[in-house]
Amino acid sequence: MALILIADTSTSERQRLRKIVEAEDHVVVEADSSVYCLEIAEFHQPQCVLLSVLLLDHGADELLQTLQKLNIPTIAIATNPPCHPPQNYTNNGATTVLSATPNEAELLAALASTLNTDFSSLSQPAVQPSAPTPVPTPSDPTQHLLSIERLQQLVGLGIEQAAETLNELTDCQIQFQPPVVETMTAQSLQNLLRARFGTTPICAAQLPFVGGLSGVAQLFFPQESAATFVTALTGEEPGSPDFSEAKQEALTEVGNCVLNSVMGAMSNALTQRLNFSVPVYLEAPIDTLTQTLAEDFSSAILLAKADFDIEQLQVAGDIMLFFKMRLFFDLASTLST
Question: Residues 40, 44, 60, CA angle at the centre, nearest 5°?
Answer without folding.
Answer: 40
